[in-house]
Amino acid sequence: MSIVLEAKHINKYFKKPVKFHVLKDISFQIKKGEFASIMGKSGCGKSTLLYILSTMDTDYEGELYLKNKLITGQDSTHLSYLRNKHIGFVFQFHYLLSEFSVLENVMLPAKKLAEKSLQEIEHNAMQKLKILNIEHLAHKKASRVSGGEKQRVAIARALINDPAIIMGDEPTGNLDSHNAENVFNIFKQLSVKQGLSLLIVTHDEDFANKTDRIIQMGDGKILP
Ligand SMILES: Nc1ncnc2c1ncn2[C@@H]1O[C@H](COP(=O)(O)OP(=O)(O)OP(=O)(O)O)[C@@H](O)[C@H]1O
Ligand SMILES: [Mg+2]
Fold it and tell me: For the range 109-114, what are the long-range contacts, defined as Cβ-Cβ under 8 Å and sequence gap of 24 or more?
């Protein structure tokens, strides 16, 4: 099985207000098609780790590989390209542009990547909406759809550039149990049918127990 994401000996310090060793020698791999979750007490460093893995935070020690290529030390322009092309994000709060339509929101990361024609991007965006069963919402304003639907729009948007991995920081944190299960099922299908890798931070034990692997964190470390 090929490895999509690898963290090697990641250490991170916050320097203010006092020096604080927040991530301690974090090493792990995520394989192609693997659906992994990260659990751990509030404040143990989950979001801090996800910021590093997603290349948004570059202030750390250790090495990060995406699709077997070292990305640690790359310049910010290249990192933003890699992030947009290979990594999809889903957060607890969806961050959709409320004045734009659902379809426009989903198209946005592909427009930024600018590797395909607008027509092709629109076609692909409709395909993603279909996968998520929300194609009927394409032309609605993002502000006019429900919370569960917004989360599915956010997943469609995360998928638009056909990333290798989806990372989520409590993507179901805001959803009722029915919608949370819905999102789990969508993630599961994507991992099984399309070989997508997923790394999802969650406080929801039912959700985590259904994933392929739980990475348990405590006090800045991965627990054995
Ligand atoms: N910018 C920062 N400067 C200093 N300390 C920070 C900063 N961001 C986070 N911390 C601290 O680092 C630790 C880890 O924070 P982090 O947000 O990664 O936790 P978490 O595991 O995601 O928690 P939660 O489950 O509540 O979201 C906490 O003690 C937090 O207070
Ligand atoms: Mg957090």
Answer: 109/84, 109/157, 109/160, 109/161, 110/160, 110/161, 112/84, 113/81, 113/84, 113/85, 113/161
Ligand sitting nearest the alpha carbon of 42:
1
- The low-confidence residues of the chain, meaning pLDDT below 50, are none
Q: Could you report the per-residue pLDDT of 98-131, keeping only the tens digit for each?
A: 999 999 999 999 999 999 999 999 999 999 999 9
Q: Name all residues whose Cβ lies below 6 A of ligand 1.
A: 14, 20, 22, 40, 42-48
Residue owning the nearest CA to atom 29 of ligand 1: 43
Query: Which domains are seen in the chain, by residue range?
Result: 32-58+79-222 (3.40.50.300)
Is the pTM above the cut of 0.90? yes
